[in-house]
Amino acid sequence: MIRFILGFLGSIFSWLTLAAFMGALTLGAIFWMYSRDLPSHEQLANYQPPTISRIYSGEGELMDEFAKERRLYTPPEQIPELVKHAFVSAEDKNFYVHKGYDLRGMVAAAVEAARGGRLRGASTITQQVMKNFLLSSDRSAERKIKELILATRLEGTLDKEHILGLYLNEIFLGQNSYGVTAAAQTYYNKTLDQLAPEEAAYLAALAQRPGNLHPVRQHDDAIARRNYVLKEMRENGYITNAAYETAVAQPLRTVQTGDYESHRSALPPRDYFTDEIRRQLSRNFGEEEFFGGGLTIRATVDPELQVVAAHSLQKALEDRDRSSGSWRGTGKTVDPASIDDGTWEDALGKVRVARNVTLGGQWFVAVVDQIGDNQMSLKI
User: Fold this and answer.
1) Most exposed of 2, 306, 358, 378 (fewest Cβ within 10 Å)?
2) What is the domain count for the chain?
3) 225 and 164 in one domain?
Protein backbone atom coordinates (compact mmCIF):
# COMPACT_ATOMS: atom_id res chain seq x y z
CA MET A 1 0.00 0.00 0.00
CA ILE A 2 2.82 2.36 0.94
CA ARG A 3 4.65 1.45 -2.28
CA PHE A 4 1.50 2.32 -4.26
CA ILE A 5 1.11 5.67 -2.54
CA LEU A 6 4.76 6.50 -3.07
CA GLY A 7 4.53 5.47 -6.71
CA PHE A 8 1.39 7.59 -7.17
CA LEU A 9 3.02 10.63 -5.57
CA GLY A 10 6.12 10.03 -7.67
CA SER A 11 4.01 10.00 -10.82
CA ILE A 12 2.33 13.25 -9.84
CA PHE A 13 5.73 14.83 -9.13
CA SER A 14 7.04 13.64 -12.48
CA TRP A 15 4.06 15.05 -14.33
CA LEU A 16 4.35 18.34 -12.47
CA THR A 17 8.07 18.52 -13.25
CA LEU A 18 7.41 17.73 -16.89
CA ALA A 19 4.63 20.33 -17.04
CA ALA A 20 6.88 22.96 -15.45
CA PHE A 21 9.66 22.10 -17.89
CA MET A 22 7.33 22.29 -20.88
CA GLY A 23 5.85 25.54 -19.60
CA ALA A 24 9.29 27.08 -19.20
CA LEU A 25 10.30 25.78 -22.63
CA THR A 26 7.15 27.22 -24.22
CA LEU A 27 7.61 30.55 -22.45
CA GLY A 28 11.24 30.67 -23.53
CA ALA A 29 10.26 29.89 -27.12
CA ILE A 30 7.65 32.67 -27.09
CA PHE A 31 10.16 35.22 -25.78
CA TRP A 32 12.81 34.06 -28.26
CA MET A 33 10.36 34.38 -31.15
CA TYR A 34 9.32 37.90 -30.19
CA SER A 35 12.87 39.02 -29.38
CA ARG A 36 13.83 38.84 -33.05
CA ASP A 37 13.62 41.98 -35.22
CA LEU A 38 12.87 44.28 -32.28
CA PRO A 39 13.70 47.98 -32.70
CA SER A 40 17.06 49.04 -31.30
CA HIS A 41 16.91 50.53 -27.82
CA GLU A 42 20.48 51.87 -28.03
CA GLN A 43 19.32 55.02 -29.83
CA LEU A 44 17.74 56.19 -26.58
CA ALA A 45 21.19 56.89 -25.17
CA ASN A 46 21.34 59.88 -27.55
CA TYR A 47 17.76 61.06 -27.03
CA GLN A 48 17.06 64.41 -28.68
CA PRO A 49 13.37 65.26 -28.31
CA PRO A 50 11.49 67.81 -30.42
CA THR A 51 11.47 71.08 -28.49
CA ILE A 52 9.97 74.56 -28.79
CA SER A 53 11.37 77.10 -31.25
CA ARG A 54 11.45 80.63 -29.87
CA ILE A 55 11.65 84.06 -31.49
CA TYR A 56 13.38 86.93 -29.68
CA SER A 57 13.39 90.63 -30.45
CA GLY A 58 16.53 92.62 -31.22
CA GLU A 59 16.69 93.44 -27.49
CA GLY A 60 16.54 89.75 -26.51
CA GLU A 61 12.93 89.76 -25.30
CA LEU A 62 10.83 86.68 -26.02
CA MET A 63 8.25 87.52 -28.71
CA ASP A 64 6.70 84.18 -29.65
CA GLU A 65 7.15 80.44 -29.55
CA PHE A 66 6.08 77.63 -31.87
CA ALA A 67 5.74 73.88 -31.35
CA LYS A 68 3.46 71.02 -32.32
CA GLU A 69 4.28 69.32 -29.01
CA ARG A 70 5.06 71.84 -26.31
CA ARG A 71 8.19 70.39 -24.71
CA LEU A 72 11.09 71.93 -22.77
CA TYR A 73 13.94 69.47 -22.28
CA THR A 74 15.63 69.20 -18.89
CA PRO A 75 18.68 66.93 -18.38
CA PRO A 76 17.98 64.12 -15.85
CA GLU A 77 20.50 65.45 -13.33
CA GLN A 78 18.72 68.83 -13.26
CA ILE A 79 15.26 67.43 -12.48
CA PRO A 80 14.59 67.93 -8.73
CA GLU A 81 14.33 64.84 -6.54
CA LEU A 82 10.87 65.95 -5.41
CA VAL A 83 9.55 65.67 -8.96
CA LYS A 84 11.22 62.30 -9.53
CA HIS A 85 9.86 60.93 -6.27
CA ALA A 86 6.34 62.11 -7.09
CA PHE A 87 6.28 60.26 -10.42
CA VAL A 88 7.95 57.14 -9.03
CA SER A 89 5.35 57.04 -6.24
CA ALA A 90 2.50 57.52 -8.68
CA GLU A 91 3.62 55.15 -11.43
CA ASP A 92 6.23 52.66 -10.24
CA LYS A 93 7.19 52.61 -6.56
CA ASN A 94 9.62 49.71 -7.09
CA PHE A 95 11.40 51.51 -9.94
CA TYR A 96 14.76 51.74 -8.19
CA VAL A 97 14.91 48.01 -7.33
CA HIS A 98 13.39 46.08 -10.26
CA LYS A 99 15.15 45.06 -13.48
CA GLY A 100 12.68 46.57 -15.91
CA TYR A 101 9.62 44.57 -14.92
CA ASP A 102 7.88 44.28 -11.57
CA LEU A 103 6.76 40.70 -10.82
CA ARG A 104 5.14 41.74 -7.56
CA GLY A 105 3.18 44.44 -9.34
CA MET A 106 2.12 42.05 -12.10
CA VAL A 107 0.94 39.42 -9.59
CA ALA A 108 -0.91 42.05 -7.56
CA ALA A 109 -2.63 43.35 -10.71
CA ALA A 110 -3.62 39.80 -11.72
CA VAL A 111 -5.02 39.05 -8.26
CA GLU A 112 -6.97 42.31 -8.22
CA ALA A 113 -8.43 41.58 -11.68
CA ALA A 114 -9.34 38.00 -10.62
CA ARG A 115 -11.26 39.40 -7.65
CA GLY A 116 -13.28 41.59 -9.98
CA GLY A 117 -11.28 44.74 -9.38
CA ARG A 118 -10.07 47.30 -11.89
CA LEU A 119 -7.90 45.90 -14.69
CA ARG A 120 -4.57 47.73 -14.69
CA GLY A 121 -1.49 47.29 -16.78
CA ALA A 122 1.19 47.08 -14.04
CA SER A 123 3.72 48.54 -16.50
CA THR A 124 6.91 49.85 -14.98
CA ILE A 125 8.37 53.22 -15.93
CA THR A 126 10.96 51.38 -18.04
CA GLN A 127 8.20 49.54 -19.89
CA GLN A 128 6.36 52.82 -20.48
CA VAL A 129 9.54 54.30 -21.96
CA MET A 130 9.70 51.39 -24.39
CA LYS A 131 6.05 51.82 -25.32
CA ASN A 132 6.34 55.59 -25.81
CA PHE A 133 9.57 55.51 -27.82
CA LEU A 134 9.76 52.23 -29.70
CA LEU A 135 6.41 50.43 -29.69
CA SER A 136 2.76 51.17 -30.37
CA SER A 137 0.10 51.77 -27.71
CA ASP A 138 -2.16 48.89 -28.71
CA ARG A 139 -3.29 46.57 -25.94
CA SER A 140 -2.07 43.15 -27.02
CA ALA A 141 -0.08 40.25 -25.55
CA GLU A 142 2.46 40.60 -28.36
CA ARG A 143 3.23 44.22 -27.54
CA LYS A 144 3.44 43.40 -23.82
CA ILE A 145 5.99 40.65 -24.43
CA LYS A 146 8.09 42.92 -26.65
CA GLU A 147 7.81 45.63 -24.01
CA LEU A 148 9.16 43.27 -21.33
CA ILE A 149 12.08 42.17 -23.51
CA LEU A 150 13.08 45.71 -24.47
CA ALA A 151 12.68 46.97 -20.88
CA THR A 152 15.08 44.28 -19.65
CA ARG A 153 17.59 45.18 -22.35
CA LEU A 154 17.33 48.91 -21.59
CA GLU A 155 17.98 48.32 -17.87
CA GLY A 156 21.24 46.67 -18.87
CA THR A 157 22.24 49.63 -21.06
CA LEU A 158 21.22 52.78 -19.18
CA ASP A 159 21.20 53.63 -15.49
CA LYS A 160 17.99 54.37 -13.59
CA GLU A 161 18.42 58.15 -13.64
CA HIS A 162 18.82 58.19 -17.43
CA ILE A 163 15.73 56.01 -17.90
CA LEU A 164 13.69 58.20 -15.55
CA GLY A 165 14.93 61.29 -17.41
CA LEU A 166 13.67 59.84 -20.71
CA TYR A 167 10.28 59.21 -19.15
CA LEU A 168 9.94 62.63 -17.51
CA ASN A 169 10.91 64.52 -20.67
CA GLU A 170 8.62 62.56 -23.00
CA ILE A 171 5.41 61.92 -21.06
CA PHE A 172 2.22 63.72 -22.12
CA LEU A 173 0.58 65.61 -19.24
CA GLY A 174 -2.37 67.34 -20.92
CA GLN A 175 -2.83 70.86 -22.31
CA ASN A 176 -0.41 70.03 -25.17
CA SER A 177 2.38 69.77 -22.58
CA TYR A 178 5.02 67.08 -23.07
CA GLY A 179 7.47 66.50 -20.27
CA VAL A 180 7.47 67.79 -16.70
CA THR A 181 9.21 71.11 -17.44
CA ALA A 182 6.59 72.25 -19.95
CA ALA A 183 3.80 70.96 -17.68
CA ALA A 184 5.14 72.92 -14.69
CA GLN A 185 5.03 76.06 -16.83
CA THR A 186 1.59 75.27 -18.27
CA TYR A 187 -0.14 74.51 -14.96
CA TYR A 188 1.82 76.70 -12.52
CA ASN A 189 4.00 79.08 -14.59
CA LYS A 190 6.91 77.82 -12.50
CA THR A 191 10.23 76.11 -13.00
CA LEU A 192 10.65 72.58 -11.64
CA ASP A 193 12.67 73.69 -8.62
CA GLN A 194 9.87 76.08 -7.59
CA LEU A 195 7.21 73.36 -7.27
CA ALA A 196 5.70 72.54 -3.89
CA PRO A 197 4.98 68.87 -2.96
CA GLU A 198 1.27 69.16 -3.77
CA GLU A 199 2.10 70.69 -7.17
CA ALA A 200 4.59 67.97 -8.08
CA ALA A 201 2.04 65.38 -6.94
CA TYR A 202 -0.66 66.82 -9.23
CA LEU A 203 1.66 66.68 -12.23
CA ALA A 204 2.44 63.06 -11.37
CA ALA A 205 -1.28 62.36 -11.04
CA LEU A 206 -1.76 63.52 -14.63
CA ALA A 207 0.54 60.77 -15.93
CA GLN A 208 -2.22 58.18 -15.60
CA ARG A 209 -5.14 60.26 -16.92
CA PRO A 210 -3.89 63.46 -18.60
CA GLY A 211 -7.20 64.14 -20.31
CA ASN A 212 -9.47 63.36 -17.36
CA LEU A 213 -7.98 65.23 -14.41
CA HIS A 214 -8.48 68.84 -15.49
CA PRO A 215 -8.14 71.13 -12.44
CA VAL A 216 -11.48 72.80 -13.17
CA ARG A 217 -13.67 70.34 -15.09
CA GLN A 218 -12.62 67.29 -13.02
CA HIS A 219 -11.64 69.16 -9.87
CA ASP A 220 -12.71 66.56 -7.28
CA ASP A 221 -11.10 63.65 -9.15
CA ALA A 222 -7.93 65.70 -9.58
CA ILE A 223 -7.76 66.44 -5.84
CA ALA A 224 -8.36 62.77 -4.99
CA ARG A 225 -5.63 61.51 -7.32
CA ARG A 226 -3.19 64.21 -6.18
CA ASN A 227 -3.76 63.25 -2.54
CA TYR A 228 -3.26 59.57 -3.41
CA VAL A 229 0.15 60.42 -4.88
CA LEU A 230 1.02 62.43 -1.76
CA LYS A 231 0.05 59.45 0.42
CA GLU A 232 2.31 57.18 -1.64
CA MET A 233 5.15 59.69 -1.34
CA ARG A 234 4.76 59.63 2.44
CA GLU A 235 4.60 55.84 2.62
CA ASN A 236 7.68 55.54 0.41
CA GLY A 237 9.60 57.86 2.73
CA TYR A 238 9.95 60.74 0.27
CA ILE A 239 8.09 63.32 2.39
CA THR A 240 7.47 63.57 6.12
CA ASN A 241 4.07 63.14 7.71
CA ALA A 242 4.01 66.87 8.51
CA ALA A 243 4.72 67.74 4.86
CA TYR A 244 1.99 65.33 3.79
CA GLU A 245 -0.60 66.87 6.13
CA THR A 246 0.27 70.36 4.91
CA ALA A 247 0.14 69.38 1.24
CA VAL A 248 -3.20 67.52 1.27
CA ALA A 249 -4.82 70.50 2.99
CA GLN A 250 -3.92 72.79 0.09
CA PRO A 251 -6.53 73.66 -2.56
CA LEU A 252 -5.78 72.87 -6.19
CA ARG A 253 -4.36 76.16 -7.45
CA THR A 254 -3.26 76.31 -11.09
CA VAL A 255 -3.15 78.61 -14.09
CA GLN A 256 -6.40 77.00 -15.28
CA THR A 257 -8.18 77.84 -12.02
CA GLY A 258 -7.08 81.47 -12.34
CA ASP A 259 -4.68 81.41 -9.38
CA TYR A 260 -1.56 81.97 -11.49
CA GLU A 261 -0.96 83.98 -14.64
CA SER A 262 -0.31 82.00 -17.80
CA HIS A 263 3.24 81.97 -19.13
CA ARG A 264 1.81 83.43 -22.34
CA SER A 265 0.66 86.55 -20.50
CA ALA A 266 4.25 87.83 -20.70
CA LEU A 267 4.30 87.42 -24.48
CA PRO A 268 3.07 90.15 -26.83
CA PRO A 269 0.05 89.30 -29.00
CA ARG A 270 1.01 87.20 -32.01
CA ASP A 271 1.09 89.34 -35.14
CA TYR A 272 2.06 89.16 -38.79
CA PHE A 273 5.79 89.66 -38.10
CA THR A 274 6.36 86.39 -36.21
CA ASP A 275 3.97 84.60 -38.56
CA GLU A 276 6.10 85.75 -41.49
CA ILE A 277 9.20 84.40 -39.75
CA ARG A 278 7.36 81.09 -39.29
CA ARG A 279 6.47 80.95 -42.98
CA GLN A 280 9.97 81.77 -44.19
CA LEU A 281 11.83 79.38 -41.86
CA SER A 282 9.30 76.57 -42.46
CA ARG A 283 9.92 76.99 -46.17
CA ASN A 284 13.71 77.11 -45.80
CA PHE A 285 14.24 74.40 -43.16
CA GLY A 286 11.02 72.41 -43.24
CA GLU A 287 8.11 72.47 -40.79
CA GLU A 288 9.47 69.53 -38.78
CA GLU A 289 12.70 71.37 -38.02
CA PHE A 290 10.97 74.66 -37.29
CA PHE A 291 8.27 73.26 -34.98
CA GLY A 292 10.48 70.68 -33.25
CA GLY A 293 14.08 71.75 -33.68
CA GLY A 294 14.27 74.00 -30.63
CA LEU A 295 15.47 76.92 -32.76
CA THR A 296 16.48 80.20 -31.14
CA ILE A 297 15.68 82.99 -33.58
CA ARG A 298 16.86 86.56 -33.10
CA ALA A 299 14.67 88.94 -35.11
CA THR A 300 15.59 92.46 -36.20
CA VAL A 301 12.33 93.95 -34.97
CA ASP A 302 12.17 96.50 -32.15
CA PRO A 303 8.76 95.93 -30.47
CA GLU A 304 8.38 99.58 -29.43
CA LEU A 305 9.25 100.94 -32.88
CA GLN A 306 6.95 98.32 -34.40
CA VAL A 307 3.99 99.82 -32.50
CA VAL A 308 4.96 103.30 -33.70
CA ALA A 309 5.19 102.05 -37.30
CA ALA A 310 1.80 100.30 -37.04
CA HIS A 311 0.17 103.45 -35.68
CA SER A 312 1.72 105.53 -38.46
CA LEU A 313 0.29 103.22 -41.09
CA GLN A 314 -3.13 103.13 -39.42
CA LYS A 315 -3.20 106.93 -39.09
CA ALA A 316 -2.28 107.40 -42.77
CA LEU A 317 -5.08 105.01 -43.84
CA GLU A 318 -7.57 106.83 -41.58
CA ASP A 319 -6.53 110.26 -42.92
CA ARG A 320 -6.91 109.04 -46.50
CA ASP A 321 -10.44 107.80 -45.85
CA ARG A 322 -11.45 111.01 -44.06
CA SER A 323 -10.02 113.19 -46.82
CA SER A 324 -12.07 111.32 -49.41
CA GLY A 325 -15.27 111.91 -47.44
CA SER A 326 -16.14 108.21 -47.33
CA TRP A 327 -15.61 105.32 -44.99
CA ARG A 328 -14.76 102.06 -46.70
CA GLY A 329 -15.17 99.78 -43.73
CA THR A 330 -14.11 96.14 -43.80
CA GLY A 331 -16.34 94.82 -46.56
CA LYS A 332 -17.43 92.02 -44.23
CA THR A 333 -21.07 91.20 -43.43
CA VAL A 334 -23.06 89.12 -40.98
CA ASP A 335 -26.46 87.54 -41.53
CA PRO A 336 -29.09 90.27 -40.87
CA ALA A 337 -31.22 87.63 -39.15
CA SER A 338 -28.59 87.38 -36.40
CA ILE A 339 -29.41 90.97 -35.36
CA ASP A 340 -33.07 90.14 -34.99
CA ASP A 341 -32.62 86.86 -33.10
CA GLY A 342 -29.85 88.16 -30.81
CA THR A 343 -27.02 85.97 -32.14
CA TRP A 344 -25.10 88.83 -33.77
CA GLU A 345 -22.36 88.82 -31.10
CA ASP A 346 -21.38 85.24 -31.93
CA ALA A 347 -21.59 85.99 -35.66
CA LEU A 348 -19.44 89.11 -35.24
CA GLY A 349 -16.86 87.17 -33.25
CA LYS A 350 -16.35 84.80 -36.19
CA VAL A 351 -15.67 87.55 -38.74
CA ARG A 352 -11.99 87.64 -39.76
CA VAL A 353 -10.99 91.29 -39.41
CA ALA A 354 -8.18 93.17 -37.67
CA ARG A 355 -8.87 93.54 -33.95
CA ASN A 356 -5.58 95.05 -32.83
CA VAL A 357 -6.09 98.66 -33.95
CA THR A 358 -5.16 100.93 -31.03
CA LEU A 359 -4.82 104.25 -32.83
CA GLY A 360 -5.88 107.00 -30.40
CA GLY A 361 -7.29 104.33 -28.09
CA GLN A 362 -8.86 100.88 -28.47
CA TRP A 363 -10.92 100.33 -31.65
CA PHE A 364 -13.80 97.89 -31.60
CA VAL A 365 -15.35 95.74 -34.30
CA ALA A 366 -19.05 96.59 -34.61
CA VAL A 367 -22.01 95.65 -36.77
CA VAL A 368 -24.14 98.32 -38.45
CA ASP A 369 -27.76 97.97 -37.33
CA GLN A 370 -29.57 100.84 -39.07
CA ILE A 371 -28.55 103.67 -41.45
CA GLY A 372 -30.33 107.03 -41.63
CA ASP A 373 -29.74 110.17 -43.74
CA ASN A 374 -27.10 111.63 -41.44
CA GLN A 375 -26.68 108.95 -38.80
CA MET A 376 -26.47 105.24 -38.17
CA SER A 377 -26.73 102.92 -35.19
CA LEU A 378 -24.12 100.30 -34.30
CA LYS A 379 -24.00 97.21 -32.13
CA ILE A 380 -20.69 96.60 -30.34
Assistant:
1) 2
2) 3
3) yes
